[in-house]
User: Which sequence fits this backbone?
């Protein structure tokens, strides 16, 4: 049960590992998240063309229970930690992050952003723009098509992975651009500014997080959506960079593509 006068720490964008398999036990990931986020912390575990949330929920470890009929929010009582299901979807226009969609549901990749947004809304998902000015970004299309912005519940204004930059190869200052975009174009709307780690290894889980103000005693898709929508400042957020592990992540992706991992 959440004490509604409190703030809670939420790192809503994590993959835990680069490949779609877990190299550690359930409790290892949970212990790290819990030690950094504290009681009632929320960690988003995001599928990427896989079912890692579903698989994770079945690994051996602490007792856990789904607290909503959609089975998109897993609660670990011993650690007072919530794990929220997410899906990161590659669209024709860049990546989209959708949280709290039902267990085993799938939004198809490869569609135009507008169609993917409709699909996310039909699934009652919480819609986030991930790293909007890093690689695979949707920031540019949002600039060109501002009417799409109203679909969103939140914008990542800090993503630890997006801190990596390299002249001519990777975007520069992408987190700064995301925050500026939020301040200039979005701040007056009912859309939140969030900070995430985008972890691809256990060590990076919750190195960045957002401080959310509690909306109700019980976490649900709607209370989480409202907490995100109400977050109009980055005060109290932890915003850490992970340039080295970002580089490692990109290298691992290449190795997987080349079949040597
Ligand atoms: Zn991601």
Assistant:
């Amino acid at each position: 049960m959440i004490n509604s006068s409190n703030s809670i720490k939420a790192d809503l964008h994590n993959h835990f590992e680069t490949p779609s398999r877990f190299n550690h036990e359930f409790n290892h990931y949970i212990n790290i998240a819990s030690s950094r986020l504290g009681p009632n912390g929320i960690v988003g575990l995001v599928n990427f063309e896989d079912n890692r949330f579903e698989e994770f929920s079945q690994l051996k470890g602490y007792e856990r229970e789904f607290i909503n009929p959609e089975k998109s929010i897993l609660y670990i009582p011993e650690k007072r930690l919530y794990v929220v299901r997410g899906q990161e979807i590659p669209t024709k226009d860049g990546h989209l992050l959708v949280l709290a969609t039902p267990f085993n549901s799938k939004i198809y990749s490869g569609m135009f952003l507008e169609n993917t947004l409709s699909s996310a809304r039909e699934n009652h998902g919480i819609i986030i723009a991930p790293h909007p000015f890093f690689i695979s970004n949707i920031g540019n299309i949002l600039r060109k098509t501002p009417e799409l912005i109203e679909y969103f519940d939140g914008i990542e204004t800090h993503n630890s992975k997006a801190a990596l930059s390299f002249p001519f190869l990777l975007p520069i200052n992408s987190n700064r651009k995301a925050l500026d975009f939020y301040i200039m174009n979005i701040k007056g709307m009912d859309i939140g500014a969030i900070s995430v780690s985008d972890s691809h290894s256990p060590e990076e889980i919750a190195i960045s997080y957002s401080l959310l103000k509690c909306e109700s005693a019980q976490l649900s898709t709607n209370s989480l959506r409202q907490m995100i929508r109400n977050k109009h400042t980055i005060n109290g957020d932890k915003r850490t960079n992970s340039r080295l592990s970002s580089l490692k992540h990109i290298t691992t992706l290449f190795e997987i593509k080349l079949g040597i991992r």
Q: What stands out?
A: The chain has one domain: 7-258. The chain has a mean pLDDT of 91.
